[in-house]
Amino acid sequence: MAFPTQRPRRLRQSDTWRALVRETQLTLADFVYPMFIVPGAKLRHPVSSMPGVSQFSVDEIVGEARKVADAGVRAIILFSAPDHKDPDASAFLDPHGLVPRAVRGIKQAVPELLVWTDVCLCSATDHGHCGHVTPAGVIDNDSSVATLAKVALTHARAGADAVAPSDMMDGRVGAIRALLDANGFSNTPVVSYAAKYASAFYGPFREAADSAPAFGDRRSYQMDPANGREALREVLMDVEEGADMVMVKPAGPYLDVIRSVRKAVNVPVVAYQVSGEFSLIKAAAERGWIDERAAALETLIGIKRAGADLILSYFAPQLREWLR
Ligand code: PBG
User: For domain 25-323, is the CATH number 3.90.79.10?
Assistant: First the structure.
């Protein structure tokens, strides 16, 4: 007979009480903000499906990174959408490509900001897949891994603070670690998109990164949304191969996975609140159907409560204002 002895409402009776017993806190220090680079100069191109998010040319992204850092964000992750696309993803191997130039510019202008780079092939391949495609139309694992490692090295040489492979090829963490180490970059962390699901929530991002697959889908390399145990297999493999952090992506529909990954590994667990999760809230808020701030903070606290140590989110630059 708990009630009336037990009255949980006693600890909810004021802001002060609620703050005192709050189990989970959101702090800006936990956030990483994704940014998109496009070719050209003096360009800021709004992404129509992601209100408030733009693509920037290299010159413009440096100033924007300054603003993001001034908004209290400590880390960003860079994506790029090069014009030139070919089967080899050669735009991503160019030391003067969009990402290397942006990394150098940002590290020079905003040295305190941690700059991560996304490592994948999809925005630079003519078919839009995350790896190389054989004549039979199969995504070839091992040749893709070799290229991904070279892309990661290109980013490390430009001064990236961490490289984050998002391709979901098997063995890429180990290959990247080995190539970085062999070239003097043993201090560059690898943040692995370890449990990345074949999700319907990446749609808006594919506009921003110009990376939609020209044929088929990504289900032969990204994970089946039905699988939870398999995520543990993926993260344990990546930790074994040397991943410094492991990521679960998307975040909201996979809170159970975040929780079980948190229990299974001792490296930081990162969750990616992806473009579709962001745009759903933005779109409903634009229609007046939902309170943007309250809804966004609720999703983020849920991701944190599930066990994420860090969150990649397009809401990051708005947080300082919201958390005041
Ligand atoms: C590229 C990549 C994707 C995202 C991050 N890296 C898209 C995809 O796999 O198709 C999605 C991020 C987002 O939706 O915000 N491999």
Answer: no
